[in-house]
Amino acid sequence: MENLQVKFITNKVTIRWLKILDMLERSRVCSSKQIADSLNVGMRTIGTDIREMREHFGSSIEISSEYAGYFFKEINPDLYHVRKRELIEGEVLFIVLKSILNGNLHTFEEWAFKFHLSESTMKRYLMSAEETLKEYELKFSLTPVDLLGGEANIRKFYKDFYYEVEIVPHTLLPIDQIRKFIEEYTTLNHFKFNTNVSQSDFSYYAYIMIQRVKSKRYLKTNKPMNEFVYSEHEKNFFHALDAYVYSEEDVIIPQEEKKFSIFTVLVKEQSMILGEKKIFVINLIKK
Predict the structure, then answer these.
(1) Is 222 exposed, middle or buried (0-12, 13-18, 19+ CB in 10 A)?
(2) pTM of the predicted protein model
(3) Which domains are present in the chain?
(4) Which of 21, 156, 259, 266 is 20 to 30 Å apart from 109, CA to CA?
(5) Side-chain-facing half-sphere of 194: CA atoms under 13 Å
(6) What does the pLDDT look like over 153-194, one tens digit per residue?
(7) For residues 214 and 254, is the Cβ–Cβ distance under 8 A?
(8) Which of 86-90, 158-162, 263-267 comes out lowest in average pLDDT?
């Protein structure tokens, strides 16, 4: 889902900076004209952006100017990602989407007041995401601001938005605790799902599932998932996960949710060879 996050950024300068960084990361050297032509702006604008980017990123990167163009080098990758994250932490739609995930809903008028925006500007920001959300068969409501559409589609969108990205991956959700629990459980119990999905990947599935369940947003299926039975090892894992989630979040994960979470992972990894399973999942979920 390359550039998915960019489509939800409202600050045009931030968008340019991220696109410039993307070009430099890929090519390591780009001429001012190449960058300007790609972004459809003047070379003077690019010069200003590069100067201000050097100030913002400081010692985390080096962007040197030579005859062939701009040369890019990461000096401190960790600090670089922190500085990158700072660019979008205050973005209006990022804050709105995270609030929706956490079940904290507000009207667009309330959001406008919070961000010191006019109501028309706030509405315009929400509508700017319309085409992107349509790809997931979703849309924003306004009173309150929420994501409307199938629950499976909403979770797929959040997974792509927070995980399947190249701009600021693995940094925008507080998944460290759930990831630590999964890592410790799998190590102590020599447990591994029958899939190539990483622990970090599954941590995002689990975190998004927990947040939606806390908000009483459940997956709706056309029939119970009796056709899918997970293994004894997977059953033990979910017993442990149940206890962990209840102690930390005071919430109980429904059985259907747990089965679907594993099935989603299986479909993600094996859809090329298990076409029938993929069809089963599509038919199972109510949109």
Answers:
(1) exposed
(2) 0.80
(3) 12-87 (1.10.10.10), 89-162 (1.10.10), 176-284 (no CATH)
(4) 156
(5) 12
(6) 999 899 888 876 655 544 556 677 888 888 888 888 887 766
(7) no
(8) 263-267
